[in-house]
Records
---
Amino acid sequence: QSVLTQPPSVSGAPGQRVTISCTGSFSNIGAGYDVHWYQQVPGTAPRLLIYGSSNRPSGVPDRFSGSKSGTSASLAITGLQAEDEADYYCQSYDNSLSGSLFGGGTKLTVL
Amino acid sequence: EVQLVESGGGLVKPGGSLRLSCAASGITFTNAWMNWVRQAPGKGLEWVGRIISKSSGGTTNYAAPVTDRFTISRDDSKNTLYLQMNSLTTEDTAVYFCATEYYFYFNVWGKGTTVTVSS
């Protein structure tokens, strides 16, 4: 089954560092496809946060970083700020589906 | 500025049909690979399908839940993407977003249009 698995929720205090994992399989991340991350504030459209596993679009603070290894990837957020409270989704291409796949999403709470 | 604007959402009865549109501006639409992504109330993002540029073959791919019911098309002369949805069920209730695809990621998103399937 082609799925990307994320933890349902993570939390951290302002200024702290949090990571969000994204675990896939050999038909997506493990096949060499990059992982991309999106931030979504409820009620708004998703925003591209990280592309190509570790690249930031212009305008995204360098507090956000991404990495990939094997069949997994992770998003790290350092120096947590209240405005980072949102839902975060990983996404990759899956060759068994011939299409894209999203993780289930992770709700970040800034304490 | 690149902009995508979805329209056509609304209330439809189970078994009914609806056609969504996505008007693009600020991009060379002819070369754009376009996707539909949906989000059911309180749920995560779900990829619906994609159409690539005509110069790359113009092929479409769909997620399993919508295959044989949904059809993605494009009118490059109007810079518009379409999603024809047939045999709708309550499971199709969602906000539908269109998005441009670049090297397998979605770099520009519209604000979405809401589809409610209910009797």
---
Amino acid sequence: EVQLVESGGGSVQPGGSLRLSCAVSGFTFSGYWMHWARQAPGKGLVWVSRIKTDGSNTTYAESVKGRFTISRDNAKDTLYLQMNSLRAEDTAVYYCVRDDYLSYWGQGVLVTVSS
Amino acid sequence: QSALTQPASVSGSPGQSITISCTGTSSDVGTYNLVSWYQQHPGKAPKLMVYEVTKRPSGVSNRFSGSKSGNTASLTISGLQAEDEADYYCCSYAGSGTWVFGGGTKLTVL
């Protein structure tokens, strides 16, 4: 069974940092590109970032470019999202998503940016 | 990276058919046959319902179908059922390794 489990969320002040993790199981992690997406409370889905199978290629939404960094550890079957210079508008549930049409989603982890 | 345009809400009675539109541009929906649709129930993660415009993943009811014309993609749900009540999102590849979602449509089954 494919499983994606996010962790690392929580509350942080504006300007702060958080690192999200996504532990996967049930498929060969190293064989898939992976994404992060987010959803602000009561709002729609927003694509955030994508990373190639070996980590050599990454892309970002303009809203997070230069502040967020996606990475992966294929030996640990884990995806990461380092979030720096956080803003109130980054408050959202963050989802880890497997590529191939964004087919499998984790349950999400809440990040709250507030003073 | 502007969001794709979806109607905020649609509704229909059980057994009826409804269609949700998703309008993009020639930089995303109009160029790539990489449009997908997701169903999201409250408090749950999104679920893939249609990919590559018209294809259904294994296990998804054939009551769900997708299409595209020009810069607009559509999701049609036939034989509406109470459990179809949810939020629906379209998504398209937008080039240069980026994706864009629609704003979402709330489906109400009357």
